[in-house]
Amino acid sequence: MDLKQVALNDKHIALGAKMVPFAGYNMPVRYSSDIEEHNTVRNGVGVFDVSHMGEFELKGEKVLDLLQKVTSNDVSKLVDGQVQYSCLPNETGGIIDDLLVYRIKENHYFLVVNASNIQKDWDWIQKYNTEGVEMNNLSDDYALFAVQGPKAVATLQKLSTQDLSAIKYYTFDYVDLGTVKNVMLAGTGYTGSGGFEILVKNEEAEQLWNLIFEAGEEFEIKPIGLGARDTLRLEKGYCLYGNDINDTTSPIEAGLSWITKFSKDFVNAENLKAQKEEGVSKKLVAFKMIDKGIPRQGYNLLNEEGEEIGQVTSGTMSPSLGYGIGLAYVQTDFTKVGIEIFVQVRKRVLKAEVVKLPFV
Amino acid sequence: MNFPEELKYTKDHEWVKIEGDVAVIGVTAFAQSELGDIVFVEVETVGEEVEQEEVFGTIEAVKTVSDLFCPLSGEVLEFNEGLEDAPETVNDDPYGEGWIIKLKPSEIAQVDGLLSAEEYQSLIAE
Question: A52 vs chain B: nearest CA distance in angstroms?
Answer without folding.
Answer: 20
